[in-house]
Amino acid sequence: MADSLHRCAWCGTDPLYVAYHDEEWGVPEYDARALWEKLLLDGFQAGLAWITILRKREGMRDAFDGFDPEIIARYGEADIERLLADARIIRSRAKINSAIKGAKIWLEMREGGEDFSEWLWSFVGGTPIQNAWTDGGARPVATPESEAMSKALKKRGFTFVGPVIVYAFMQAVGMVNDHGVECFRHRQVRAMARA
Fold first, then answer.
1. Above 80 in pLDDT, residue 195?
2. Contacts (Cβ under 8 Å, ≥6 apart) of 58
């Protein structure tokens, strides 16, 4: 029997994309390390399709030591060369260097007593923005919130965090519910928001 659930049109029919849409996209994420991993992956996506990242995500997790900031922050030239030779990942020196720099900043924030999750969520007032787009309706590629978060991330030294990348990140981690109102996940994701 065919699946009769109405989904956001962007996920198409690729099983990996459908699973990502049905299980992850838009689910509010509050774990600081998981948020950093997602921001890192969104930076690696710059100039590419998200499906490319989904197809490489497990290889990237393995190659980047589970996206452990403490390990990545210590990466040196040998690690960079190892990563550049690994076909399982996006092999961009600039993006690899960005990941290393981002890990160091994440650790500095933590050591300074700042919670990365609380800091990021402060850009949406601590609770997801609930949009009510129709499935075929256009969504913005950036918003005042994503522009503010982008500017603040850049000020801290993060790279590959322009307002469009940041808005995609905000959608993915549930800071914004951009599931179409007809999509079966819209209500489910809305119900997951912290009060």
1. no
2. none
Task: Count the neighbouring beta carbons within 10 Å of the beta carbon of residue 60.
Answer: 20
Residue 191 has pLDDT above 90, yes or no: yes
Instruction: For residue 130, give the H/E element and its range.
Output: strand 129-130
The kind and range of the H/E element at 177 are: strand 176-177
Question: Tokens in use for 152?
Answer: 């603040």
DSSP string, the chain: --------GGG-S-HHHHHHHHHTTT-----HHHHHHHHHHHHHHTTS-HHHHHHHHHHHHHHTGGG-HHHHTT--HHHHHHHHT-TTS---HHHHHHHHHHHHHHHHHHHTT--HHHHHHGGGTTS-EE----TTS---S--HHHHHHHHHHHHHT--S--HHHHHHHHHHTTSEE-S-TTSHHHHHHHHTS--
Q: What confidence tens digit (pLDDT) does each residue in 119-144 have?
A: 999 999 999 999 999 877 788 999 99
Token pair, residue 116, equals 């990365």
How confident is the model over 154-181, as a mean pLDDT?
Answer: 97
For the chain, what percent of residues have pLDDT higher than 70? Answer: 98
Contact (CB, 8 A) for 86 and 63: yes
Q: What is the mean pLDDT of the chain?
A: 95
* Per-residue pLDDT at 178: 96
